[in-house]
Amino acid sequence: MALVKDNMLLQVIRGTIGKQFTIYERNGQIIIAQKRGPSKHKPTPRQLEARYKMKVAAAYAKVILEDPELVAYYKSQAGPGQNAYNMAVKDAYNSPEVQQIRFEDTSVVVTAKDEFRVAEVEIRVFDAAGQLQERGKAVLGRNGVDWYYKTAGLPPGGIVKVLVVDLPGNGTLREVKLE
Description:
It contains 3 helices and 12 strands. By secondary structure, it is of the alpha+beta class. It has a 4-stranded antiparallel beta sheet with strand order 1-4-3-2, with no helix packed on it. Strands 5-6-10-9 form a 4-stranded antiparallel beta sheet, with no helix packed on it. Strands 8-7-11-12 form a 4-stranded antiparallel beta sheet, with no helix packed on it. Helix 1 crosses helix 3 (84-93).
């Protein structure tokens, strides 16, 4: 590895030269290093999972490029040097997050967050025996974060399952046992 100083040619060049050298910049310094080859180690399960998630995210991004409304939405979320494709990959790679589930009388209030947009929240209410009592879609509240679902009743000892889904279809399932 060599650090380069005051070389006009290498100030603007980045990349690989002749499958031998790689020129890159890190922390404001230009570095020339031998080109890395493929890893000799077997990928870990987490690496394989990340590769799979990236493959799925890239496939989603290619598909949304055909929908002008989604392209416009993702373009509006893009920063400098980013485009709709980049934003769609980022959205598809990350799942939404259920921040809080609370109960107000017979209503279930879910606070859900996604880096882009939560598409829907589905609520399922089970009794103590595990039988499905009711299910339905929650309605987005005025604050744009809380989702509300009015139940017929919350059975004691039952379970409420909340499924939060974002635009690409990533889902996060959370369940709360009723007291």
